[in-house]
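User: Teach me something about this protein's shape.
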Amino acid sequence: MAIRNFALTSFQGLNTAVSDFLRKDNEASDLSNVDVDYKGYLRNRAGINKVTDTVITNAPHVLGLYKFYKDGVTTPLFICAAGDKIYKLVGSTWTDMVAGLAETGGRWNFITHNNICYAADDKNIPVKISESGDTYSIADWTAVTNNPPDLAPFIIVHRDRIFIAGDPDNASTVVYSTTAATPDFDATGITGVPVLKGDGQAITGISKLGFNLIVFKKHQIHHISGCTSADFTRRMIIPGKGSFASRSMVNTGNTIIMLHDSGILNFNGTAVQNMSLNFQSKIAGIDDDYIQNACAIYKDGRYWLSYTRNGQTSNDRTLVVDSITGACTEYSYGVNAFYLDLDNNLYGACNSGFVRQLDTGTDDDDSDIASYWQSKYFDFGLPGVTKKLREVIVYCSLATEDLDLTFYVDQDRQNWAKTITPASSTITEVRFSCDYELVGKRHRLKIAHTGSETYKVEQVIFRYEPTARRGVVV
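Assistant: First, the predicted structure itself:
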């Protein structure tokens, strides 16, 4: 019978549906450490590398990152929070700026306002970092009339004020500073804006969208409009949905993306959309006891979410979701905080006393990256017909290393593998002959690579022959 072609092309991301009938042909049933570019080409992800090889003393988990940019200062101050210290990067060494915080393990957030850096977490008194004559100093954040709350993990600059929430003694109130050059908390500001006090839900994060301050609880989204304390007005926008992790919230410019127990939600100011329908099992796999560990960043149109899997105690995986196509991939590392600087360099706060630059280079701290993309089971559009696979053609690029192709036939009862060496840094054709009868009428493909070179796969073409069986003629 005539040879037919089936093309696997325009690769897409992960779909964890329980049935292949719910997956598109070009969606992955499983993957790790791969990306899909704007052309639909499959490639391995970029690498991660230590900012400095000098470990922070006693190797604590790093839980906060920031670069303090100040007018008139050429080089920003790189800051990290780890253990019971806040550190600054001096040359290649992390040097502590504070003798010791009261509590360890806080999740730190940073802002800059009027050339002062303010830092707050969920366990310590907020601090401020200032610069004078190239010398940086750190001190408790105090104000003239009223000091900010002792615990103020959620902090943001909006309409020339600092808004703060998360005080456990005032869990449903947003307080705010004056607009003075040195922010103060007057009687009105420290009283703040109540957000459904007494409803049993604490504020879980604050952000901003347009002219509105957006306030999140686990199952509510509110906005606060107005310009001055005299006309601040609160209104609930979304009941039933909200944010479970304050540092999972990112502002894309037009929307706010966040983690809820029902999925990754995208809020446009009036409605929410679930971005994770194709990989809902990954959301279900986030450990409920550590969901507050989740942190995120938005870079180049993609939402990066680092999270703690069931059975783990710290973030160990990262989902990356394209906000336009919805394609999702997963990386085999986790971070405790992200930071994206003004030059679009992405950093991750890691365990064991290290800060790493992410999405850079082609290896992980000089170690090879192991990546793979696995398809659904294919029936080539002929589910009831036995077929023979005659030839496979791969259009790909990889200069010196190998790509491993594994074929799972007949629901994994048979499998065979082929290693190919494209030997080209540009897309080239690699073809090989084979003679496998697809007894179970279906097969799937796994494309894998371990190395430190970048590869791309444009498409894979299966050439097969339908065969007659039990009176069925194709």
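Now, about its shape. The longest strand covers residues 424-438. The two ends are 8 Å apart (CA to CA). If you'd like, I can walk through any region in more detail.
User: That's plenty for now, thanks!
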